[in-house]
Write a structure and sequence with these properties.
The protein is globular and about 95 Å long. By secondary structure, the chain is an alpha/beta fold. The strands form eleven sheets. It has a 24-stranded mixed sheet, with no helix packed on it. It has a seven-stranded antiparallel sheet with strand order 9-8-7-6-12-11-10. Strands 42, 43, 44, 45, 48, 49 and 52 form a seven-stranded antiparallel sheet that branches. It is built from 27 helices and 61 strands. It is a peripheral membrane protein. Its EC number is 3.1.3.16. Pfam families: LRR_1, LRR_8, PP2C, RA_3. Its cofactor is Mn(2+).
């Protein structure tokens, strides 16, 4: 996948000269427009002189202003017109009066940019071509031309006999017909038209590249066509096969950026269905809309999404039409000529600006479907009274504020009423007249506070979710389904008893008891009353002979009534109640029970599965998390031999009976986390179907015997006390994830690490040694832990960014990104967003500005991936107050989508983010409706996403925007911790429960693990991500020396020498956790982004006189300097398989590097500090001082980058200063740090705008070596410095004896 224009981005920037820059700076209304040629994604030739990376000649840079029109631009370059392409999608011809630069400025403003100078800069950015792009001529797309029109001169013979001779003829395949004409007079001469629908296209084996075309019917005609090349033969065969396979004469020309249809299409007079959706059809021209009446048999016409602006009256002359779709065309009125379409049966006018309908529409007596959703109607049009064949009123998303039921009485033909997403405030019945015909009524997402539909006698289905209903009154004669969740209901009145009712959803209301009539329903199968205030359940309800699914979680139930007889109950949810016991007869009375969730209660035991030794239990899923169960429950679980999923986490289990576990042979998923287990029985090997074992946060010392299981996929034994691992000779190929973090005593040998090399995700602790620099900061104001769980999904679409030491001072950056169904965008954001924030801090100190720009820039940097894919994103930045750099800490939070942040203050949750989903945000819903988006019944924009703001998904603009919510919260000593989570986490775990959960766990990592495990036990099946940041904000531990006044500006903080930090090190940097290294045996986008995602520039500290270092605490860091700084990361590249796919044995060793016979690892920080290398070192202190002065910014926030590359090599440090970079770049093993390696071994210098997609896709797949494994530290390792750098290093480290003593000369 290549980003459009990726090879021209550098060309575009290099064309800016000093005069052009000066001209642009003179006025923010000035800018440049980049005009591309008409070739779509041209591929460079495979050989020849043009195969080099020379700039393309089809890109022109045109300087202009916001007032410059298309006509003026075309006059300057003698062009015929300009075309615009949004989000890599359709291409539209611009009108002569349109202003291209103003279009770009308006687009950027709609994204969220407000500063005119920044808008001007962004408009000239190369990455913007993936969002908006201009062409000097219509782009040529060979694939589109093939599907629209095939044309050529070939040898043709008519008929199957040999009487006819072969002759050169013009052959055209367009629409549903094959046209054979004279070469000279193809349009005016004699033409032979062969209808192909239902016919045949066959290969002629006697002749090379020859096809036989035959029409259908008894009078079928046949033509033989001999093609010149195999490519032509295949192209015609492929397209003709599609036509002959159709059962109706359908021509689909949707999404082709057409202004007119091909003129040859009008020769296909058998066309009955024509789809022109998503084009830019015009009225005029040979193939314009005015010529559509030439289709004499046309029945169905789709002109939706064509930006028509006015109703095309010419379609009213196609009298054969039975279906017409004009949705999303910005129509304001419908002409009276619509009455001419007497055969019309379906008319779709959704997504327009209609507020009235003509009376002539009532003459369409055959019309049975009329779509009026998402228009501007304030009332139900009266003309509907005459449309007796219409049975559904589709008016969702309009402006109807009141509904008089008497109006529906007059429209006796309407059976289905859809008025969701209106502004309904009341529904009135002014008289006692019954509404007999309405069977389905949808009133979701309105403003109703009460609803009385007792006069709607035959109502079968009612949707009234997400209103403000306090009372609900219905007639129960025919009621079958009731959906009334997310209201304020305290009771529901239905009379008579709804004996036909099968499904009822009353969740998220204020019910304190269930009405008596619920127990009398004879056919009720599903009842959802979760999230209410129920304190008891009626005995008759649980003993119902029809109830199959009962959801009563998150209530106040203290007991469950006994079962008196066998019941057909299949699913029972009792989580989050106050149950101390379950009915004794539960399992042997409910023999059909397959799902039981009693998590988050106070159970001390569970009932037996049967009254005898033989059990008939069919239970498959059992969730017991968060109770007070002990090991005695194991004996009871044996009776459920059909169990597939067992969650018994966070109980009081000291052990699990080995003999009992062996009998659960069908077990597939087992969660034993948060207990007091010291071992997992060896009988777990009897569970041959087990694919998931989660047992973190225990006291396990011995690795369980699970690696012999044939289907094992995920093993989580983090936060235990493992000492060693006994491994078989080979691991199961199914093992995809192994988490061993938090086992501080675990030591892995190289043999073990090599055996783990094929695992897709291996998580291990980084090992560290305490160095002299660590003593400068004995504690940190914060530390964090994280957890990511894929659940029952095949891939993990959640990524975490966590940096405890961000920038140069005591700052931190944390983020979480949720791609829902895609993993590419979260990984890219994980790679780049920290760098983008670091760069934006250089330009502004205003929180709302730099955070907003960080999101918008990250949105742009997604490139082609962001056109169709998107992700929710949340970013937290902890920093000092801008007005007082030495003052209190602040927390700035920005988010789009559904990721959320919660701060614990005095034991109470403080929400810091805003949920940008249509269901939760009324103003966003109104904005999206105002822009005429189509919102489907599941509240998704165009059926794609429920979020109104995302990073990516740019094709949904302007409905879905990347502009974030930004909030800054001052931190204080009462702030205990911060929780970041995605939608799946907070859908299952409330803010208050999340806070209480973390408070009970000391370790942030264990707390994050517990949050995710709880969400899974509560029923979550999706990806879950959680970050817990423990805060230690306060001045109690301050040990600084008295402040000495100085006139010098604030300098960079000290860089420290650390070697692969471990769990106790508070200064770690990691893509996901400072105490976790997460590895992938195949190169991921996040790994490759480490070399392409860095954007900030390098700064170098100036040298000065050495003085006694001032004693500082972690809250007030010292400003002394040191040469080396370790930046560990999850992106670890083993030299056993280098970045370009070459084997390490073929590579020259790097001078000055000693690996002690072990494999060399190069770790690249993929997050903060914009890890880059300068091309040379300053030659004098003057140069150093110049560099320092060049890095100072007016706002006082300076971000200094490392001047060296530091990497762990089995405990050694690889230090490369500027003068060695030229040699380093020449080394194949390290050149990937400076540019992208191609398959031929060459290196492409990184562009100013990094193409992350291109880099990630071209990355080699690593399948060997112990990639992902940190080397064990050798106690004899020392700091190795090349001889040429020894003196310089000693001089710069003078005064820091602990460091100098570790230096040894390289021999």
């Amino acid at each position: 996948m290549k980003r459009n224009g990726s090879r021209s981005c550098v060309t575009r920037k290099t064309r800016f000269g000093s005069r052009e820059r000066d001209w642009l700076k003179g006025d923010t209304q000035r800018g440049c427009v980049c005009l591309y040629g008409g070739t779509v994604d041209p591929q460079p030739p495979a050989s020849g002189p043009q195969a080099s990376s020379t700039p393309q000649t089809d890109l022109q840079l045109v300087l202009c202003s916001t007032n410059t029109t298309v006509e003026e631009l075309c006059a300057q370059r003698d062009g015929q017109g300009l075309y615009v392409q949004l989000h890599g999608d359709l291409v539209r011809r611009l009108d002569s009066s349109e202003r291209p630069l103003q279009m770009v400025y308006d687009y950027l403003a709609s994204m969220g940019y407000t500063d005119p100078v920044r808008v001007q800069q962004e408009a000239a950015n190369s990455d913007l071509s993936c969002l908006i792009r201009f062409y000097s001529e219509r782009p040529v797309n060979a694939d589109q031309q093939e599907r629209t029109l095939l044309k050529g001169v070939f040898s043709v013979r008519k008929g199957k006999t040999q009487l006819h001779k072969w002759a050169e003829r013009q052959v055209i395949l367009c629409g549903t017909c094959l046209i054979v004409a004279s070469v000279k007079d193809s349009l005016t001469g004699k033409m032979h038209i062969l209808p192909l629908v239902g016919g045949k296209v066959e290969e002629v084996k006697r002749r090379q590249h020859c096809l036989m075309f035959s029409s259908a019917g008894s009078q079928a005609q046949t033509y033989f066509v001999n093609f010149d090349t195999l490519a032509d033969y295949q192209r015609w065969h492929r397209q003709a096969s599609k036509v002959v396979s159709q059962t109706v004469s359908l021509v689909d020309l949707s999404c082709y950026s057409l202004e007119t249809v091909p003129e040859y299409l009008f020769y296909s007079q058998d066309i009955t269905h024509l789809n022109l959706r998503h084009n830019f059809m015009s009225l005029q021209g040979p193939g314009g809309l005015l010529n559509l009446p030439r289709f004499s048999q046309l029945k169905s016409l789709n002109l939706s999404h064509n930006r028509l602006g006015v109703f095309p009256e010419c379609v009213c002359e196609i009298f054969t039409l039975t279906e017409l779709n004009l949705s999303c065309n910005s129509l304001h009125t419908i002409p009276g000529q619509i009455g001419n379409l007497q055969s019309l049966q379906t008319l779709s006018l959704d997504g327009n600006h209609l507020s009235s309908l003509p009376e002539e529409l009532g003459d369409l007596f055959q019309l049975n479907s009329l779509g009026l959703s998402f228009n501007n109607f304030s009332h139900i049009p009266a003309v509907l009274e005459r449309l007796s064949a219409v049975d559904k009123l589709a008016m969702a998303g309009n402006r109807v504020e009141s509904l008089k039921l008497c109006t529906l009485v007059r429209m006796s033909h309407l059976k289905i009423i859809d008025l969701r997403l209106n502004r309904l405030r009341w529904v009135k019945s002014e008289n006692l007249e019954a509404v007999n015909q309405v069977t389905q009524l949808d009133l979701r997402d309105n403003c109703l506070d009460s609803l009385d539909l007792s006069s709607v006698c035959n109502l079968e289905t009612l949707h009234c979710q997400r209103n403000q209903l306090g009372t609900l009154t219905l007639g129960g004669f025919t009621l079958r389904m009731l959906h009334a969740s997310s209201n304020r209901l305290t009771t529901v009145n239905i009379y008579p008893v709804p004996n036909q009712l099968t499904h009822m959803d009353l969740s998220q209301n204020l019910l304190e008891y269930l009405p008596d009539w619920v127990c009398d329903c004879r056919k009720i199968e599903m009842l959802d009353v979760t999230h209410n205030l129920l304190s008891e359940l009626p005995s008759r309800l649980l003993n119902s002979l029809s109830l199959r699914k009962l959801l009563t979680g998150n209530n106040r139930l203290q007991r469950v009534p006994d079962l008196l007889d066998h019941v057909p109950l299949e699913a029972l949810d009792l989580q989050h109640n106050k149950l101390a016991e379950l009915p004794e007869s539960l399992f042997y009375k409910a023999l059909n029970l397959k799902y039981l969730n009693v998590s988050a209660n106070a159970l001390e035991s569970i009932p037996p599965s049967s009254q005898s030794e033989e059990s008939l239990s069919t239970l498959q899923e059992l969730y017991l998390t968060g109770n007070n169960l002990n090991e005695n429950c194991g004996a009871v679980l044996v009776g459920h031999q059909n169990l597939r999923i067992l969650h018994i986490a966070y109980n009081q289990l000291l052990s699990f009976p080995a003999s009992k576990l062996s009998k659960l042979e069908l077990l597939e998923e087992l969660n034993l986390s948060g207990n007091k287990l010291k071992t997992i029985p060896s009988t777990v090997s009897s569970c041959k179907r087990l694919h998931t074992l989660i047992a973190h946060s225990n006291h396990i010392t011995v690795f369980p015997e699970i690696l012999n299981l044939p289907e094992i996929k995920l093993v989580d034994l983090s936060c235990n006390e493992l000492m060693e691992i006994q491994l078989p000779d080979s691991l199961p190929p199914t093992l995809q994830e192994l988490d061993l973090t938090g086992n501080s005593s675990l030591m892995l040998e190289h043999k073990t690490l090599n055996l783990f090399s094929h695992i897709t995700t291996l998580k291990l602790d980084q090992k560290s040694t305490t160095t002299a620099a660590d003593s400068l900061s004995s504690s940190s104001p914060w530390n964090h832990g994280y957890s990511e769980m894929s659940g029952q999904r095949n891939k993990l679409c959640v990524s975490v960014l966590a940096v405890d030491r961000f920038g140069d001072s005591v700052e931190a950056c944390y983020g979480i990104f949720d791609g829902d169904r895609n993993e590419e965008v979260p990984r890219l954001l994980q790679c780049t967003m920290g760098d983008v924030l670091c760069e934006e801090l250089q330009h502004s100190s205003i929180d709302s500005v730099y955070m907003c720009n960080t999101f918008l820039t990250s949105h742009r940097k997604l490139g082609m991936a962001g056109q169709k894919l998107g992700a929710s994103a949340l970013l937290c930045y902890i920093h000092r107050e801008t007005s007082d750099p030495g003052g209190n800490f602040c927390l700035t939070v920005a988010n789009v989508g559904t990721c959320q942040a919660v701060l614990c203050r005095n034991g109470r949750p403080v929400p810091l983010s805003k949920v940008y989903s249509l269901e939760n945000c009324t103003e966003e819903m109104e904005r999206v409706k105002l822009s005429k988006a189509i919102i489907t019944e599941d509240n998704k924009v165009s059926g794609v996403t429920c979020c109104s703001r995302l990073l990516g998904c740019s094709y949904l603009s302007p409905w879905v925007l990347p502009k974030p919510w930004v909030h800054t919260e001052p931190l204080c000593s009462q702030d205990e911790f911060l929780i970041l989570g995605n939608r799946a986490l907070f859908e299952r775990v409330s803010y208050q429960e999340a806070v209480c959960t973390v408070q009970a766990v000391q370790d942030p990592r264990a707390a994050a693990k517990k949050l995710c495990s709880l969400a899974q036990s509560y029923g979550c099946k999706d990806n879950i991500g959680a970050v817990v940041v423990s805060l230690h904000i306060g001045e109690d531990s301050c040990t600084c020396d008295p402040l000495v006044s100085t006139t010098e500006s604030r300098g960079p903080p000290p860089a420290t020498v650390t070697v692969t930090p471990g769990p106790s090190d508070p200064v770690n940097l990691s893509s996901s956790s400072g105490i976790v290294t997460e590895f992938s045996s195949e190169t991921s986008a996040s790994e490759m982004g480490s070399e392409a995602g860095s954007t900030a520039s390098d700064e170098h500290p100036s040298s000065g006189p050495v003085s006694r270092p001032e004693r500082r605490c972690s809250l007030h860091p010292a400003t002394t300097l040191c040469l080396f700084q370790r930046q560990p990361s999850c992106a670890t590249f083993s030299s056993n398989q280098s970045d370009n796919g070459l084997d390490s044995d073929d590579e020259a060793p790097l001078e000055g590097v000693i690996s002690n016979g072990s494999k060399l690892e190069v770790e690249v920080d993929i997050h903060c500090c914009a890890f880059q290398l300068r091309s040379g070192a300053p030659d004098s202190p003057k140069d150093l001082d110049f560099e320092k002065r060049g890095s100072d910014y007016p706002n006082g926030k300076m971000r200094r980058q490392n001047s060296v590359v530091v990497s762990a090599t089995n405990g050694c440090l690889l230090a490369v200063c500027g003068r060695e970079i030229a040699d380093l770049k020449k080394s194949p093993s390290t050149s990937s740090l400076f540019g992208k390696k191609l398959s031929n071994g060459s290196v492409v210098a990184p562009e100013d705008s990094h193409n992350l997609i291109e880099v990630a896709l071209e990355a080699p797949k690593k399948k060997s070596g112990y990639f992902t494994a940190p080397a064990q530290q050798d106690p004899e390792d020392q700091l190795i410095v090349p001889p040429s750098l020894e003196q310089e290093v000693r001089e710069q480290l003078r005064g820091q004896s602990p460091l100098v003593s570790e230096l040894s000369p390289h021999t």
